[in-house]
Write a structure and sequence with these properties.
Largest sheet: 22 strands, antiparallel, barrel
Helix content: under 10%
Oligomer: single chain
Low-confidence stretches: 1-58, 320-334, 362-368
Mean pLDDT: 89
Number of helices: 5
Radius of gyration: 27 Å
Length: 811
């Protein structure tokens, strides 16, 4: 879904973009009559990177050609010397995938996880063991997210609906030269369908279990024949939650926990895991001649959902014995005579006793000044972008991408997931961004293709929250309202030398300059000074740095259907300032992470494109990893600490393969497999982080595989019936950087099935889908607070078995 938000445009950026558009229009004028298409207008030719449809899909019994733009120009994915998972619109529909997290199931060494309630509506992402799962705006993503070449800089707002897409490109390995900052693990790029001259559209509706009701549609038409085109698409999606919140006191009279729902017979407070969102996208494309191509896109998203499904997985009893921060306050160990512990873990894995309230001070639950929170997650986002492609001459073109985006998001989390008042947070994010990218593409005949460009990016995220935390030895109740402004400048270039018709040498470089401030606001509910963290109020931390990334590779095409390549590339994840200090001395900057990657691979097609097999092996030197100190007496003396530092290096090795097979008419088999070995270097680790050499980064499985099979049956010439089954396996992972048994998520295999009927004429389609058809209980994420003395581990169970029926009309 095209997510994102409030924006206050800078006049100099708007002015530059407007000047570029007016100049391009003026230059286009004389050329219009010379390059007229039917009706006197220009033939609608896509500019560089405008769209990348399947260009050789005429035979459904062979592998379709997919064109990508990962190297700033249109290339067959099989001729691109990069590890890319490219998924076209038809395959997304065949698999029934409607959001970006689902695509990761079939992408080797890729993890895209919608986060639990503590991190709000955000997407944790990592590729080849490198990424980010903490939403805090002080921390940078490790995987670059792009929609129509516009950068999405925060994890919040990155759970993207695959509305009206042409394709998804997942680039594995550091993309520091091609994508830029924060693509140290790789990049995920979504490309929408581009308006064209065809009058067409589609409308589909879905109904299923959990009261699932979903409508999607799109329409494409020409406002001015052969020159001005419009594409409008929209989606609305609703389904009920699958985790039930019960009132503990209602279910357990006499337990000492008060009954909060009165004479409610079923004791149900609410549900979690439900979704309710709508989004729309409008694209306007102007093609006055074969030199100029202008597209303006606007999008809006409104998401008013329940909190992510959250259940209590582990609950450690708390006592008055000293914890990490000192002795436990009496409120933690006895509320109404009830102590915290395993009693609050329901026997039903899809149930919760979370109370979502906290007292103020020691006045007790539900006092007049208690803090209560809604068990919801809201997101409002919008964006406007403009792309100008201008062909200056036959071998030279200019591309400008200007974007304004913004969002607000509100959510809350009950950290202890129990009726006891141990930890509650009420969160708010407000984000705005402006970006401008210019690319000049050219070639020297058939000898060299080259690109040079520049990138400007500015953003401001304000993180406001009310934190009420009662951990052992530490009781915090404060408001924060922290502005985090940031700006980035970059210049880049890349060239490919076609030494022969089989041998290519590619080199690229990018220079990045970035700076970020973090200003702390820490006050009581009434605005007065907070005795514990009030000394931070008004302090600003600053980070600034520069970085140079490079890329060099060689590829050789042994036959038209078999290519090998070898590559060295680098990337970085930006530094920042500690977002969670307890004393002023802990306001410290931390530097960027870096990686140098060595990769070899091959891309191949066999038996007249009936088989496609691609594979890669890599070795990464991952340095200056951003880890968190749990003890930092050198900064403010003894006491609590959560200070990010550059605290370790690691070697990362892995292999991965993808295949697609069309053995005979109608049958298709596709699959992927990956193996990754992550190893910290013992000599590089700071002992205060708690990291041991055998540990790995969060959500990094050693093994991962997927398999899908479908067969198209002809139904007496009236259409075709296509059954499909998909399986995906993920090895066990850890959700915390400090790996331990309480934050280990067991391995799992999940299966989905879909039966599709497509009419031979009339454009009708119907599908029956069953997700998680074995009804497997598995967890997407967990949130382990035991290391901080919180005593709880919460989990985000995936949806149980669900079914849905979809009817679609294409016209």
């Amino acid at each position: 879904m095209l997510s994102s938000v409030t924006i206050r445009p800078r006049l100099r950026v708007l002015g530059a973009s407007a000047f570029a558009l007016m100049t391009a229009a003026a230059l286009a004028g004389p050329a219009a009559a010379q390059n007229a298409g039917p009706g006197g207008g220009a033939a609608p030719q896509p500019g560089p990177g405008r769209t990348a449809p399947e260009t050789a899909a005429a035979n459904p019994d062979t592998v379709s050609e997919v064109v990508v733009t990962a190297q700033f120009r249109r290339q067959n994915v099989q001729q691109t010397p990069l590890a890319i998972t490219a998924v076209n619109a038809q395959m997304l529909e065949n698999r029934g995938e409607t959001n970006i997290a689902q695509v990761a199931n079939q992408a080797p060494n890729v993890s895209l996880k919608p986060q639990g309630a503590a991190f709000g509506p955000s997407l944790g992402a990592s590729i080849r063991g490198i990424g980010q799962y903490d939403f805090d705006p002080a921390l940078e993503p490790g995987v670059g997210m792009y929609v129509d070449d516009v950068y999405y800089p925060t994890l919040t707002g990155s759970i993207l609906d695959l509305l009206d897409l042409d394709r998804v490109e997942i680039l594995r390995g550091p993309q520091g030269t091609l994508a830029g900052m924060n693509s140290i693990g790789g990049a995920v790029k979504l490309y929408s369908k581009v308006p064209d001259a065809n009058d067409s559209g589609y409308l589909e509706g879905t109904y299923g279990s959990l009261n699932h009701m979903e409508v999607r549609g799109g329409v494409n038409f020409a406002l001015v024949p052969d020159q001005l085109f419009v594409r409008l698409s929209a989606v609305t999606n609703h389904y009920d939650g699958y985790v039930t919140r019960y009132d503990y006191g209602c279910l357990n009279p006499g337990s000492g926990i008060p009954n909060m729902v009165g004479a409610n017979r079923d004791c149900v407070v609410g549900h979690e895991g439900g979704k309710n969102y709508s989004a729309a996208r409008l694209a306007l494309r102007w093609v006055p001649n074969d030199k100029l191509d202008v597209e303006v896109i606007g999008d809006y998203t409104y998401d008013n959902s329940q909190n992510p499904a959250t259940t209590l997985v582990h609950a450690l009893p708390l006592s008055t014995a000293p914890g990490p921060f000192g002795p436990s306050p009496a409120q933690l160990t006895s509320v109404g005579g009830v102590t915290y512990g395993p009693r609050f873990i329901p026997s039903d894995p899809y149930a919760s006793y979370a109370g979502f309230y906290m007292p103020s001070g020691s006045t007790g639950p539900l006092s007049a000044d208690a803090l209560t929170a809604a068990d919801t997650s809201q997101y409002k986002g919008w964006g406007v972008s403009g792309t100008i492609d201008y062909k200056l001459m036959d071998n030279l073109s200019l591309k400008s991408i200007t974007a304004f985006r913004g969002y607000t998001s509100d959510w809350s989390e009950d950290n202890d997931v129990s009726p006891l008042p141990l930890g509650l947070g009420v969160e708010h994010l407000a984000h705005q961004q402006i970006s401008e990218e210019l690319r000049l593409n050219g070639n020297l005949g058939k000898l060299i293709d080259w690109t040079v460009g520049g990138f400007y990016f500015t953003q401001k995220t304000t993180y406001a929250s009310h934190q009420d935390l009662w951990y052992p030895g530490l009781v915090l109740d404060f408001l924060q309202d922290d502005p985090v402004p940031q700006h980035t400048y970059a210049a880049f270039g890349q060239a490919t030398w076609h030494v022969t018709d089989k041998l290519n040498l590619t080199g690229g470089i990018r220079y990045t300059d970035e700076a970020k401030d973090y200003t702390y606001v820490r006050v009581n509910r009434d605005g007065s000074n907070n005795l514990i963290v009030g000394a931070l109020n008004g302090i600003t931390g600053h980070y600034a740095g520069t970085h140079v990334d490079y890329r060099a590779d060689v590829d050789y095409r042994w036959t038209p259907d078999f290519m090998t390549y070898a590559e060295i590339s680098t990337g970085f994840k930006g530094g920042g300032v500690n977002p969670r200090p307890f004393v002023p001395a802990q306001v410290q900057p931390f530097g960027p992470e870096t990686v140098t990657a060595y990769e070899v691979g091959f891309k191949s097609q066999w038996l007249d494109r009936h088989i496609q097999l691609n594979a890669a092996a890599f070795y990464n030197k991952y340095n200056d990893i951003q880890l968190t100190l749990l003890s930092c007496p050198q900064f403010g003396g003894p006491g609590p600490c959560a200070l990010p530092i550059n605290g370790g290096n690691a070697d990362v090795r892995g292999v991965e393969a993808e295949t697609e097979i069309h053995p005979f008419g109608g049958l298709q088999v596709d699959g992927s497999v990956s193996y990754l070995k992550f190893g910290y270097l013992a000599s590089s680790l700071n002992p205060a982080t708690g990291i041991q050499p055998w540990m790995s980064t969060p959500y990094t499985p050693k093994w991962k595989w997927s398999a899908g099979v479908q067969y198209a049956f002809d139904v007496m010439g009236k259409g075709e019936l296509i059954p499909r089954i998909d399986l995906a396996y993920q090895d066990s992972v850890y959700s915390n950087a400090v790996n331990g048994p309480l934050n280990q998520i067991p391995k799992y295999t999940v299966g989905n099935a879909r039966l599709t009927w497509r009419s031979a004429t009339g454009g009708w389609e119907a599908a029956l889908e069953v997700s998680n058809f074995t009804n497997k209980l598995y967890y997407l994420t967990t949130f382990d607070l035991t290391g901080a003395g919180g005593g709880s581990v919460s989990g985000e169970p995936a949806m149980p078995r669900e079914w849905s029926v979809t009817l679609k009309k294409t016209f």
